[in-house]
Design goal:
Layout (H helix, E strand, L loop, with lengths): L5 H15 L4 E5 L2 E6 L2 H8 L3 H13 L3 E4 L3 E4 L1 H23 L1 H12 L8
Antiparallel strand pairs: 1-2, 2-4, 3-4
Length: 122
C-alpha cells in the first residue's frame, strides 16, 4: 500500500464534496470565505488507505496555512486554502461546481475566493 500524495488528498476532498455528496459547506467570516472539508476518515476511505496515512498530509496543509483543524468542528480551509481549492475546482471540477451552485453563484464565490493574497494567513 502506497501513502497518498498531498495532491491526491486535495483531489479526494473535492471529489467527495462535488461529485459524491454534491454539497459544498461554506462559511463566510470577516477573514474571508472558508470551505468545510470532509473528515480525514472519509478522505482515507476514498483513497483506500488507513486513516493515519492522511493525518500527516492534513498536518502539512495546516502548517502551510491552508487549513485549520479543531476537535468536534472539523477541517476548514483558511482564506488562502479556499483560494487554492478554487484554483483546483476551476481546473478540474468547474462543471460540477457550476451544476451545484449555478453559474452566477459559482462566479461570485470564485471571485471572492481568489481575492485573497497568496501564502499563509497571519
Amino acid at each position: 500500500m502506497h501513502a497518498p500524495t498531498l495532491d491526491a488528498v486535495i483531489e479526494a476532498m473535492l471529489s467527495i464534496a462535488l461529485v459524491e455528496d454534491k454539497a459544498l459547506g461554506l462559511e463566510f467570516t470577516t477573514a474571508g470565505l472558508l470551505i468545510r472539508l470532509p473528515t480525514t476518515r472519509r478522505i482515507a476511505e476514498r483513497l483506500g488507505v488507513p486513516h493515519y496515512y492522511v493525518l500527516p498530509l492534513i498536518g502539512t496543509l495546516e502548517a502551510d496555512g491552508f487549513v485549520t483543524r479543531a476537535e468536534r468542528v472539523g477541517i476548514r480551509t483558511t482564506p488562502a486554502g479556499t483560494r487554492r481549492l478554487f484554483e483546483r475546482i476551476r481546473q478540474a471540477y468547474a462543471e460540477q461546481a457550476r451544476a451545484l451552485l449555478g453559474p452566477k453563484l459559482f462566479r461570485l464565490l470564485e471571485e471572492t475566493a481568489t481575492d485573497v493574497p497568496d501564502g499563509r494567513e497571519d
